[in-house]
Amino acid sequence: MYEKNHQRRWGRWIGLGVAAGLIYTVGLACRAKNSGPSAPPQPSADSRTVVEDGSIVQADASNSSGTMTPSRTSVRPARSVHPPKPLTPEAIAELRGRIASADGYGARIEARRSLFHQLRKHGQLDLALPELNSLLDEVERREGRAMAQRVAFSIAGNLVRQKDHNSAIGAYTVLLERYGDGPFAAEALLHLGSCRLELHEYVEAEKVWRRLIEGFDETAQAPWGWRKLALAQLLQGKFEKSLATLEMMAGKYAGTQFGEYARMRQGYVLMAAGRLAEAKASYADFLTTCSNGKYCRLAQDQLAKVDQALTVARADGRQR
Length: 320
Fold this sequence. Notes:
By secondary structure, the protein is an all-alpha fold. Among the domains are: 1-35 and 84-183, Serine Threonine Protein Phosphatase 5, Tetratricopeptide repeat, CATH 1.25.40; 240-320. It is built from 15 helices and two strands. It has helices spanning 2-14, 20-35, 45-51, 89-101, 105-121, 125-143, 145-161, 165-179, 185-198, 202-215, 222-235, 239-252, 257-272, 276-287, 293-319; strands at residues 57-59, 68-70. Strands 1-2 form a two-stranded antiparallel sheet. The protein is elongated, with a radius of gyration of 24 Å.
């Protein structure tokens, strides 16, 4: 009933569809609030091949030891997209003038939202984020802190869906600076780390996910934070740290799918580090107790790849 009343109020204020975009934004935010914690954002198809599917591992043909590494080459670098020319001071002043002359709360919110998006689309994120803060200030004054948080979370999520990860990072940062103790903080950190990952900013992603597990360890997002933390460490070549993270995760979530994933994933990290004999032993040990069909099958596939790599390495040694 509460949400229905809010929707009717938004409709009366905005009227005639002038701020349809804001209604959509707030609606998504409210649904996110009501539906509880969501699964972590899915990366693009290319990055998912590397970061989630442990079976995508290849032998380095230039390495006679048969060292196996994650197939990072399958991730295409971000396309170089040249944004439109920055808005001129005159154009920005005109857009701000629309805010000042807007008739009513809904129209002002729509004008502020438009200014924010125009600035970030023109590559002026440093100017756009203060406008986002101003928008949230106004929503908070009129609708309260809870609604402002929902709006901030939804705007950031929409930017992720548009694959504007730089702007999404800025929006999530604004949300966390304003509402770092709010109900969306843990999920915002999870998404923020994934945006960093999409941009191959592995060091920053590691920091974000560590902040998640240290500050929000009892939330539904925490297990995903542990999983992603181990990934960020792996992608930096920090094999020992990744293994240690997975070991702690396996103990913390023993008897759950997250604990089982952590145990299985240790073999993958050992493969990536070129420690094939240890990887084989790790997978073999996992298969004696695994109960999750998906992870059992994946471990079996990986074990077969390890055996193949060991055979190639022995044959290469004999040839030499």
